[in-house]
Amino acid sequence: xxxxxxxxxxxxxxxxxxxxxxxxxxxxxxxxxxxxxxxxxxxxxxxxxxxxxxxxxxxxxxxxxxxxxxxxxxxxxxxxxxxxxxxxxxxxxxxxxxxxxxxxxxxxxxxxxxxxxxxxxxxxxxxxxxxxxxxxxxxxxxxxxxxxxxxxxxxxxxxxxxxxxxxxxxxxxxxxxxxxxxxxxxxxxxxxxxxxxxxxxxxxxxxxxxxxxxxxxxx
Length: 219
Hints:
alpha/beta, 21% helix, 4 helices
């Protein structure tokens, strides 16, 4: 008789078969989370966590978005949280981007008509920008929370950076230099064992309003 193989398990020794997950192109199991509104969702949003984090840290924010009828989904990146992989080690940064696009495709098969947004913090912000750059015009917007991006001071002026971000998001067109509109949010956060605090999130809502062909690609 063929020898039975034991089920793949999370770093906490929970079988992946008992948890929401996807298997990436390298055969690694990624733990997933979904926040689905009770009614019909009007948009999809993928949340990309930062280095050393896991997507569960964004539960409070996701709950708030879910209350706005947004279906929020996320996964722990390779080497993070309850996903497989050596801790905080990846062979190529593009693996993160590839996995996000795979998860995105799975969700859009079930919700093909909904607009799709991306949200990323720190390293997750860099992943989000690169993900949007892979499919220009595919996403309706991005929320970037302190993204891990270092602009080239020789070529990336404030307006060029705005135009680049606007160029990879879909939206109505308008005058140059208006690609991103700043939004200020305050979220009371007392979870994650950090004690009461006010987390101020400075976001950028990106719209495709202008694309200067001279805009830098090395942000």
